[in-house]
Every structure is written in structure tokens, then in C-alpha cells.
Design a protein that fits this description.
The protein contains eight helices and ten strands. The protein is an alpha/beta fold and 273 residues long. The strands form two sheets. A six-stranded mixed beta sheet has the order 6-7-8-3-9-10, sandwiched between helices.
Length: 273
């Protein structure tokens, strides 16, 4: 993971991006004039209250949603829809229950846009089975795996197609604390080896600090960037870091800001009732 952002090339650029959803009960502006950049190898987290527009921002970068105004570019090209250059992982694991572990990892490699990778299919699958500690479970189906193993499988499948950027929406939110920490450590191990660019959505300030180079604090709806925080702790990071006074001071500071935005979001929801 990149610790010197100023020396790395910019991969993602959000410029004055806004989005409004229109429905039977009126219009809701969820993102308003958002601008930020992600550098190569950087790990950036978005934190903010539920419903503030974080997921919409990620979906626009993934190509699932189109911004109303502004622009989003990846490696200098505009986003025109989903693509194999972006790997997406959601809280719900994002694996195919009818495919084995091996077939899940192979899935993206079999697509026409990944023919070059497909030629090395066995080598790639074996690499990610080992890297994500799924050896011996090649023929198992997702229903036979623990929650942590299913999320490791989702990571392996996303990584196998060699995306330029990994987009993660609360990937560990449904896991118990011990499994969550184990996967955070494994994610850092993988990212150190693979040097991927990551955009993470999380409700956990502690998780954001522990994993990220930078944190973008998002306002109550409509989303605006309230503050950009450069995380000062070098990699590699260990669980002991979370107990240090410096870590705890930053956590409390960011949690206070987050709670203020959560309260504003609740006020907005109450006004609409």
C-alpha cells in the first residue's frame, strides 16, 4: 500500500460530482459537488452516517450509477459502465452459491474481456487459493464455508481478474469482531503483495484508521466531503496499534465528527416523516 501519495500517479478523479434520485414521493439529492482523488496504491475510506450517499459514490465509480453532473475518471478515461478494471465487494459476500470455490474464482477469468488472464487460469486460481488460505476447499460450495471464508472467497474472485481498483462496501460488517480483525489483517497482507488501489465504505472509524492511508469524512445527506484525514501510522500495522494513545485520540476525534453528522441525518429523516 502506498504511504507516499504525493509521489504516486492519480488513478481516480471525482470532479464536482452530484446525484439526485427521483421517485414517486419527490426528489432526493444524495451527493452534492463532491471532488476527490485516489492515487495509485492508496487505501481510502469513506465514513459517514447511513443513507448519506457513500454507497452511491462507490456505485458511480463502479459504473452502476451515472452522476447527474460532474465527472469521474479512472486512469484518465471516463466511467461508462461496469468493467473488469474495477473489482466490487459487498457485505453480502458477492459469491455465486451454485459454484464451487474454484469455479467462483475462475468465473471472471472465463469472460471474453479477460481472455489473456484466462490462458493462465489454473496458475491464477492456485495463487489466490493459497493467498486467501482457501487451499483444500476448492470443491466446496459457499454454503459450506464460514462467513469469513466466504468473504475471503469474494476477495479472491475480485482480485483474480486483476482490477485496477478494489471497491468495498462494508465488506466485514456482518462478521463477528474476531473474524473481522482476522480479515482486516489478511486484507493488508494481500494489498501489500498486490499493491492495489482501494476505496472502502465502513461505519467503523477504528477499521478506517487501521486500514487506510486517508479517510474522507462524509456529511449528512446530501454527501459532501467535510474533512480529509491523513492517517499518520506507517505500514505494516498490527492489532497493538489500536491500543496506543495516538490511535485512540484520532479515533475519538473522528467518532465525534461522525456522531454529529449522524445526528443531523436523523433530524433530516424526522423532518420527512
Amino acid at each position: 500500500m502506498n504511504t507516499q501519495r504525493q509521489e504516486a500517479r492519480e488513478r481516480v478523479i471525482f470532479k464536482n460530482v452530484s446525484k439526485t434520485y427521483h421517485g414517486d414521493h419527490g426528489s432526493v439529492k444524495v451527493v452534492e459537488d463532491v471532488s476527490f482523488k485516489l492515487a495509485e496504491g492508496e487505501f481510502v475510506s469513506l465514513i459517514g452516517p447511513s443513507g448519506c450517499g457513500k454507497t452511491t459514490m462507490l456505485q458511480m465509480l463502479a459504473g452502476f450509477v451515472t452522476p447527474d453532473t460532474g465527472s469521474i475518471t479512472l486512469d484518465g478515461a471516463g466511467i461508462k459502465g461496469p468493467g473488469s478494471d474495477r473489482g466490487v465487494i459487498f457485505q453480502e459476500y458477492g459469491v455465486f452459491p451454485w459454484l464451487t470455490v474454484q469455479k467462483n474464482i475462475e468465473f471472471g477469468l472465463s469472460l471474453s474481456c479477460n481472455k489473456q488472464l484466462g490462458a493462465k487460469r489454473k496458475e491464477i486460481v492456485d495463487h489466490y487459493l493459497k493467498l486467501m488460505h482457501l487451499n483444500g476447499f476448492e470443491n466446496a460450495y459457499p454454503k459450506h464455508l464460514s462467513g469469513g471464508m466466504r468473504q475471503r472467497l469474494a476477495l479472491a474472485r475480485a482480485y483474480a481478474v486483476n482490477p485496477n481498483i478494489l471497491l468495498m462496501d462494508e465488506p466485514f460488517g456482518a462478521l463477528d469482531a474476531q473474524t473481522r480483525l482476522a480479515l482486516q489483517l489478511q486484507l493488508m497482507e494481500v494489498l501489500t503483495e498486490e499493491r492495489k488501489t482501494v476505496l472502502l465504505i465502513t461505519h467503523s472509524v477504528e477499521e478506517a484508521i487501521f486500514l487506510s492511508n486517508r479517510i474522507l469524512i462524509i456529511s449528512a445527506r446530501p454527501s459532501r466531503i467535510l474533512r480529509v484525514v491523513d492517517v499518520p501510522f506507517p505500514y505494516p500495522r498490527t492489532p497493538e496499534l489500536t491500543a496506543t494513545p495516538e490511535f485512540q485520540k484520532l479515533r475519538l476525534e473522528l467518532e465525534e465528527i461522525s456522531m454529529q453528522q449522524y445526528a443531523k441525518q436523523q433530524e433530516l429523516a424526522a423532518e420527512k416523516q
